[in-house]
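Researcher: We're teaching a course module on how sequence relates to structure. For the next exercise, students receive a sequence and then see the predicted structure as tokens, so they can try to spot secondary structure elements on their own. Here is the exercise chain.
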Amino acid sequence: MCSSDLGPVMTSSLKVHIALFLFLVAIFGMAARLVQLEVQEKDFLQDQGDARTIRMQKINAHRGMILDRRGDPLAVSSPVVSLWANPAELPSDDDRLRTLASGLGVSLDEFRDKMHRASGRNFVYLRRRIAPLEADLILSLGMPGVYGEKEYHRFYPAGEVTSHVVGFTDIEDRGQEGVELSFDHWLAGQPGKKKVLKNLYGEVVKDLMPVAEALPGKNLQLSIDQRLQFLAYRELKSAVQQYEALSGSMVLLDVATGEILAMVNQPSYNPNNRIQLDLGSVRNRAVTDVFEPGSTVKPLTVAIALGSGLPADFVVDTSPGFMKVGDAVIRDPRNRGSLDLGGILAHSSQVGISRLALMINEYDVWNLFQKLGFGQVTGIGFPGESAGFLPNRRRWKDVERVTFAYGYGLTVTPLQLAQAYQTIAAGGIKRMVSLVKDPQIQEERVMPLDIAVALQGMLHRVVTEGTGKKAAIEAYEVAGKTGTARKLGDQGYDDQRHIAFFAGFAPLSSPRFVGVVVINEPKTASVGGGSIAAPIFSRVMQSVLRLNSVPPDFVREAA
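Model: And here is the predicted structure for the students to work with:
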């Protein structure tokens, strides 16, 4: 064979050897990569795989209960299920989707439209917070892409009766109003976390391990007595409807502790059904709304007169039934003649209290009002509580002195007024009011005992011989003060718009309970607190005394 024939053979052999070499290099390269993946990058790859199958899932916490002072539930949480879907995982079969839509209570077209609007998302709620049994029926369809999540639904057994105190939560179980909001940090609890294993369809196939346990919220026991709350609510609602009033409020306090036993308002709302909620009915008017207290503060002016050295039997001449102060004319309904201090309160004489106000130091009056809590929040921590308004002037005109003394030019809440009367009933000791049962009692003396006792007797005369006769309770001695205030409008005080009040306590011998009633703009011929608010106080307080087994002051002898 000539040399020219060897060229092609050697070229072919070389190609074979080169191909074999490259193949071996590739084999060794793959082996080296496998070793690298197995030895050096094993943990990284394992983590990446787990990241696609192992997920963190929230464990919802059980919200604490709200209880009344006797342990009856005012707010409870029950387990519910929220259904959600991953639109990308849902079947395209119309028959299966129609079955799912029917179970959800919607048409196929409505369901498809909802899923279309959620396109591009991997999470959309189908129905929130439904009964577990209903959810199980839908989940039992085995529909790909449909899942359930355990949550809790808040329920309020007393409904509208306690709604202004308790409030409500939103769909995420966060407090929005009332105690639910102000004590949200206490009630809410702490959600937990757990690792779960999911399949390719996102379905949980196994609970792996808890990462953090859910901590349930703590229960909260209020000072409210649900029985008294119901009684007050029933009477207030009836009166507001009867007089076609704009609104009304009532507060009941325990004299010895400052605990709020009842706090009701009209209009109200049902916290279990807020679909057509009127925002105006949500306010707890007993702590958010303010008004000029009118004659209900006259006893405080008398207290300053007593403290200045005037005796209880000091006589003021109210003749001829009116007086001029500056450019204003102060009038009584009729000429009451000469009245002692108790008589001024019993007949609610504007002239009498005005003459008295001009005899005492106006700064002393202001100081007592401030000590009693006017112009400042009570400290119960209720959301939206108003401080009211207490003017602090450098110089007082005479007309300002007298109008201030009989309850104009300042504003208070029903709760603030109740706290002031609690102080009188407690012998001059002011106690911080509380919405929580068995509070740590905070108290201070703001009025001498002898003056407080003298006021108690004068306020008893209001009920026995004066404007508050309709506040009387059979077998019990009652003390209190009526009030009627004109409302301020765009053109000054309106003679056609009034607020009617009654503030009082019982029994006189050893005061146990304070009650304040406010009726806003009653539409009736007689708008006075004595004719409208006093009877409500009487009916409610009578039940309060008997439910608490308070012994009567006297028993009527048989004829």
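Model: If you want an answer key for the exercise: Residues 26 and 322 are 117 Å apart (CA to CA). The chain has a mean pLDDT of 89.
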